[in-house]
Structures are given as C-alpha cells and as structure tokens.
Write a structure and sequence with these properties.
Layout (H helix, E strand, L loop, with lengths): L20 E6 L2 E6 L3 H20 L8 E5 L2 E4 L2 E3 L3 E5 H4 L7 E2 L5 E5 L5 H14 L4 E6 L4 E8 L2 E9 L3 E2 L9 E2 L5 H7 L1
Parallel strand pairs: 4-7, 8-9
Antiparallel strand pairs: 1-2, 3-6, 4-5, 6-8, 9-10, 10-11, 12-13
Length: 193
C-alpha cells in the first residue's frame, strides 16, 4: 500500500507550537526547535547592538539607510524562515505590508549556528536564501567563535572571509564600521565586567 502523502504545513501550524520553541516552515515541513542557548542569544543580540546604531540610526558616523530586525518571519513562497537577524535597505523595506511575516527579500541575513540547527541553517536555509536573492549572508558559530561572510554571485554563495576569536572585521554589506568579534562571545562578557 502506498505511503500517505504528508500534509503540507501552513502558517496556522505555527500557532500550535509550545511557547518555548521556535517554528519555521521549510519546503512545506514544520520545523520546531528549542529557543536559542545563552551563547546563541548573546552573539545575535551583541551583533545587532553593533549594527543598529550606525546603520539604522546613522549614529557614530554610520551611513544609516537600513532596517535591521531580530528574528523576523520571512515568507518565501510556502516557506517561512526565521533568521536570527535580517536587514533591508530602507528604500526596499518601505513596501512591507502589515502581516506577521515579511515577503520582501532581505538584503542581508545572519544565522547564529547551534549544534541542533547547523545542518538546517547551512544546507536548507542557505539554499532558500540564495534562491530568493538574499545578497549577503553571515554565519556565526558562538561555540567555535567564528564568523563567515558570504556574498551571492550568479546564484551561488561565495565565501568572502572567515574570522575568529577577537578579530576586528569590516565585512560586506557593513564594511563602513569595524566589528570586534570578541564582543559576540560569552567569555567576552565576563572579561568586560
């Protein structure tokens, strides 16, 4: 007897997941993962704190012109992805409709990797980001203390650089500022107090 076809997940399925979990829909499949670890949350929050003042507000000599959001829902066809951070140039973001999800492709995304999401982020989500024209992608691994910078070229992800530990980096599309990677790691919190 043939196997029954799997029911495709819909946006309404996201309302049924427990509050301590995060849900995404990838290629019709509901993916449910635990909320991020402390290392994960710290890396994402600290990177946002580095980028928002100069790129959203134009402070500290930054260029402004960006909208950068934590964990937005991005709708790509039937898929709903939740990157840790996503950014849009303000002129493109102006067309966002009032829904829970955003259907305008981000100009930049950042995924913070964890052991439980590593394959999902690197394989499935990176492929979808590329298929839908996200131009820049950053992958942060807070356990390995690394940052990888990618640019989409001719439909393929090209690694522009990989950096670690306390490296100070200027990276596309935010090359106007220098980011000290040591602020992203949990052990950096203890040394800064």
């Amino acid at each position: 007897m043939p196997e029954a076809a799997k029911k495709k997940a819909t946006y309404d399925d996201l309302y049924s997941i427990p509050e301590n979990m995060t849900g995404e829909i990838i290629d019709g499949e509901l993916i449910v993962i635990p909320r991020p670890s402390l290392e994960h949350s710290l890396a994402s929050s600290c990177l946002g704190a580095e980028l928002v003042p100069p790129y959203y507000h134009g402070r500290s000599g930054g260029p402004g012109g960006w909208v950068i959001l934590d964990e937005p829902e991005i709708k790509f066809g039937e898929s709903i992805l939740v990157p840790d951070l996503a950014g849009w140039r303000k002129e493109r973001f102006a067309g966002v409709k009032q829904t829970n999800w955003i259907s305008i492709t981000p100009d930049w995304i950042c995924e913070v990797l964890s052991p439980g999401t590593l394959r999902l982020d690197r394989v499935k989500k990176m492929a979808l980001y590329g298929q839908h024209g996200v131009q820049h992608s950053w992958l942060i691994d807070p356990l390995a203390k690394t940052l990888e910078i990618f640019r989409l070229e001719s439909g393929r992800w090209v690694l522009l650089g990989a950096f670690s530990e306390d490296y100070k980096v200027r990276a596309e599309p935010f090359q106007e500022i220098e980011i000290d990677l040591s602020v992203l790691w949990l052990d950096g919190v203890a040394s800064n107090s």
